[in-house]
Amino acid sequence: MRFAKHTLAITAAAASCLSPAMAQDTMTIPVVIKATTASYWQAVFDGAQQAAEKLGIQIEELGPANETQVAEQISIMENLISRRPPAIVLAPVSTDALAGPVEAATEAKIPMIIIDSGVDTDKYAALIATDNFAAGQRAGHALAGCIEKTQGEAAGQVAYLRANPNGESLVSRDEGFLEAISNYPDIEVVDNRVANNDTAKAMNDTLDLLNRYPDLRGIFADNQLMGDGAGTAFAEQGAGESVCLVAFDSSELEVDFLRQGIIDSLIVQDPYMMGYAGVWYAHAAQQGVALPRSVDTGVHVADTESVDLTEFSGLLDPSQREMSPYLGMSPDSQQ
Amino acid sequence: MATHEANLPAGRTVKKPTSHRVAVKRWRLPVETLVLGLTLLLWGVMSLSTSTFFTTNNLINILRQVSVDSIIAFGVLFPILIRGIDLSVGSVAALSGVVCATLLTMGLPIPVAIGLTLLLGVAIGSLNAFSVYRLGIPAFIITLAGLQAYRGGAFLVSDGTSVFGLPKEMASFARAEWLGIPSLFWTMLVIGLILHFILSQTRTGRYMVAMGSNYESARRAGINIKRIVFFAYIVSSLAACIAGILLMSRMSIGSPTAAVAYELNAIAAAVVGGASLFGGRGSVLGTFIGALLFATIANSANLLGIDSFWQMVATGVLIAVVVYVDNLHKRRQSGLK
């Protein structure tokens, strides 16, 4: 047996070893994500599904269509709590608004595994997420690096597109981005636009930004739908050459733009691992296993040169994701 | 107002549509002029206060941005004219984009994929009309149901994510220009001219206005109500369908979250452009001016760096003020107080 490199994998596997697959066959863990319409969240489901298969349990895929639908996600949580599932994996769309439902679930003795972004309470079993502030910083440095490469110096005007000013992960990202940019005294953040998680609006906003600031050197798009929209606008205007674009996540469209050089860098998170570890932790927590309080799943920066490296293939396309053999054991082989 | 007319003896109602049409003409001018004036004023102010507004590049951007919204609004105008409504157009646009993209990624030739998608639009329009005319379901309700159902359909077809991998020709259509004008705008222009012609020059168009002004007298005058209802809802769905395909081409993905709440923008554009939600009043040109005003506001807010939230507030206030001024005018002219 080979040893898994990923510490998270070890903990998860160790946790599961304490209860070797004697689980009831019918156990179903609900996984509530933020937006069923973004491929990022489909990757979370893929990972969750994979973990469920290996644990011999099932998951239930839930979530509002869009990240801005706070009330819908609260309703989903309220319905779940009344059904009393063994555990819940939740990616909260709002840090404040979902705090109540998370506390209610914990008080109802349903272990809560929070994934992707934090929530404004400490009554949960574990948090498995990207450190979004740090990820935003990576984006800021990537944008500055790109400007330095194309213009010869890290100087000029930049702007950023915000998907949703209500999401904690997005706000942290934006703050991280601004913090990183503040290290470059000659780069000035001139504007930001809120595009309500609407790709077409992101596209129009990008066109208007490019037009308003003819000397704009860079744009940062803080999630996948913003990246899709900004990239499409760049393609329409042929702006890829002179203006740097750094975006979050990795939809097929974004990766295509990255290959073409329209997007210069993608900040790639590990949604697959969030889903995978989320379900695994939920399963373990339900058996009373003590879990680490918080786990950072990390980010990677892919650029036009590195996009086809094998280390990114599983991150950019979850269908190519291979978990290490240590995690790959089926419940049957453990017996 | 319509109720006492309906009580008139059958013989006298025949000429009602005619007299109403005269009224329509008298009414249409002020609100369209008002909105056109507002739009031009905004263009003037923006041209003077920024160096970026009155540039070829920006004007072309506005033309691109207004095209899809206008096409949806033209469609919605038709049910509104006959005192109906179509709330499903945003969802129909999303469903069409996703269906067309899926057909294209399955390897169907572009004309076939577009043709099949347009058939879907006709089918949805027919279903709406059938529900309104035959089943007697209020248009507001059946199209509200459609708003939910077709959005759900878009998610189902696309399995919840965007459909990626369109043929290059499809994605490049929306980026193309002819005589320096974006292809999207040409498409809108052609559709707008056809619909304007139908509305102002054909019997169908006049019957629609007559029916919206006074349903009962139009029916008694022997107008084929069924035909008009089907026509109006099919135009609406078909326009939404075309807009959805254009939006897909522009975004180069078929997105099930595309065009959320576009039905409300479309209705607002029609109403600000002089259409009455009580039927019988409205024009394609006015609707275009309404859509142009909203697109200009969005563009100006971006160029001036005004908070997106203020832009929403301003648009809302504008709708209320324009409709109020229009109503005030109407009351004065008809001698009501």
Descriptive account of the structure:
- The complex is a heterodimer of chains A (335) and B (337).
- With 335 residues, chain A is an alpha/beta fold.
- Chain A folds into 2 domains: 7-130 and 270-299, Rossmann fold, CATH 3.40.50; 132-268, 3-Layer(aba) Sandwich (Rossmann fold).
- In chain A, 46% of the residues lie in helices and 18% in strands.
- The longest helix of chain A is centred in the middle third of the chain and has 20 residues, at 132-151.
- Mean pLDDT of chain A is 85; it is low at 1-24 and 327-335.
- By secondary structure, chain B is mainly α.
- Helix content of chain B is 76%, strand content 1%.
- In chain B, strands 1-2 form a two-stranded antiparallel ribbon.
- In chain B, β1 and β2 form a beta hairpin.
- In chain B, α3 packs parallel to α14 (284-304) and α3 packs antiparallel against α15.
- Chain B is globular.
- The chains are: A alpha/beta (335), B mainly alpha (337).
- The interface between A and B is large, with 35 and 38 residues.
Keywords:
heterodimer, A: 335 residues, alpha/beta, Rossmann fold, 6-stranded parallel β-sheet, 6-stranded mixed β-sheet, elongated, disordered C terminus, B: ABC transporter involved in vitamin B12 uptake, BtuC, disordered N terminus
Q: What's the rounded overall pLDDT mean of chain A? A: 85
Radius of gyration of chain B: 20 Å
Domain unit count of chain B: 1
SSE arrangement of chain B, N to C: HHHHHHHHEEHHHHHHH
Q: Class by helix and strand content of chain A?
A: alpha/beta
CATH architecture of the largest domain in chain A: 3-Layer(aba) Sandwich
SSE blueprint and pairings:
The complex is a heterodimer of chains A (335) and B (337).
Chain A: H1 7-17, E1 28-32, H2 39-55, E2 58-62, H3 70-83, E3 88-90, H4 99-107, E4 112-116, E5 126-129, H5 132-151, E6 156-162, H6 168-181, E7 187-194, H7 199-212, E8 216-221, H8 224-237, E9 244-248, H9 252-260, E10 265-268, H10 271-286, E11 294-296, E12 300-303, H11 310-316, H12 325-328, H13 331-334
Parallel strand pairs in A: 1-2, 1-3, 3-4, 4-5, 5-11, 6-7, 6-8, 8-9, 9-10
Antiparallel strand pairs in A: 10-12
Helix pairs in contact in A: 1-10, 2-10, 3-4, 5-6, 7-8
Chain B: H1 2-6, H2 10-13, H3 16-49, H4 56-81, H5 89-105, H6 110-133, H7 139-158, H8 168-173, E1 177-178, E2 181-182, H9 183-201, H10 203-213, H11 215-220, H12 225-251, H13 262-272, H14 284-304, H15 308-333
Antiparallel strand pairs in B: 1-2
Helix pairs in contact in B: 3-10, 3-14, 3-15, 4-9, 4-12, 4-13, 4-14, 5-6, 5-7, 5-12, 6-7, 6-12, 9-10, 10-12, 13-14, 14-15
